[in-house]
């Protein structure tokens, strides 16, 4: 005697349960992933909001250039110059006369450590040049000027890929 598919469902699957030795009810083997997805989305939103706040502590409006983004280097020191001419090492304000001694103390004489100079686009050229000259005469060899990408084109060959290295004096 053959059994159709409808007959198997009509019996409630009792034959299968008896055959496999299970009791009246089987173990619930489904995992509810909705709470996991909710938590992951909340974490994603938190990280998306907090990530831009962790990049730089001193607010400056960087000038835009056509240079490409630079590759990350380990443990750089950031010198920021605001439009008013105020200098910062990291987030700490420092006078111009104390810039070189403070950097020498921070690097413990290792002048090969990269230094990123972030200058506001409205900061005077004289101030930026003085800071970079001070760093250069102090023996630092890896001085990098940080800018934003997407600035006006200088008419360079558009087929050539943009440089991934920052400008160095």
Structure, explained:
It is a single chain. 31% of the residues lie in helices and 14% in strands. It is elongated, with a radius of gyration of 31 Å. Strand 2 and strand 3 form a beta hairpin. The protein contains five helices and seven strands, in the order αααββββαβαββ. It starts with a helix and ends in a 20-residue tail after the last strand. The chain is an alpha/beta fold. The strands form two sheets. The chain has a five-stranded mixed β-sheet with strand order 4-3-2-5-6, covered by helices on one side. It has a two-stranded parallel ribbon with strand order 1-7.
Concise synopsis of the structure shown:
With 169 residues, the chain is α/β, with parallel strands linked by helices. The protein is built from five helices and seven strands.
What's the structural blueprint in terms of helices and strands?
Blueprint: H1 5-10, H2 14-20, H3 34-50, E1 64-65, E2 77-81, E3 87-89, E4 92-94, H4 99-107, E5 115-119, H5 125-137, E6 143-146, E7 148-149
Parallel strand pairs: 1-7, 2-5, 5-6
Antiparallel strand pairs: 2-3, 3-4
Indicate the mean pLDDT: 75
Order of helix and strand elements from N to C terminus = HHHEEEEHEHEE
Low-confidence stretches: none
Judged by helices, strands and strand pairing, the structural class is alpha/beta
Gross morphology: elongated
How many separate helices?
Answer: 5
Beta-strand percentage?
5-15%
Q: How much helicity do the residues have?
A: 25-40%
Distance between the first and last residues' Cα: 92 Å
How many strands in all? 7
Q: Mind telling me the C-alpha Rg?
A: 31 Å
């Amino acid at each position: 005697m053959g059994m159709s598919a409808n007959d198997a469902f009509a019996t409630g699957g009792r034959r299968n349960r008896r055959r496999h030795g299970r009791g009246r009810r089987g173990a619930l083997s489904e995992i509810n992933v909705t709470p996991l997805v909710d938590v992951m989305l909340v974490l994603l939103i938190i990280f998306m909001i907090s990530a831009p706040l962790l990049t730089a502590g001193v607010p400056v409006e960087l000038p835009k250039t056509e240079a490409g983004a630079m590759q990350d280097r380990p443990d750089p020191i950031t010198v920021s110059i605001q439009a008013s001419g105020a200098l910062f090492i990291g987030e700490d304000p420092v006078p111009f006369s104390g810039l070189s001694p403070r950097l020498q103390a921070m690097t413990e004489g290792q002048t090969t450590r990269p230094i990123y100079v972030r200058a506001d686009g409205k900061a005077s050229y004289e101030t930026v040049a003085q800071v970079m000259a001070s760093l250069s005469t102090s023996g630092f060899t890896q001085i990098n000027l940080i800018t934003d990408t997407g600035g006006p084109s200088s008419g360079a060959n558009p087929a050539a890929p943009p440089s991934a290295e920052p400008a160095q004096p």
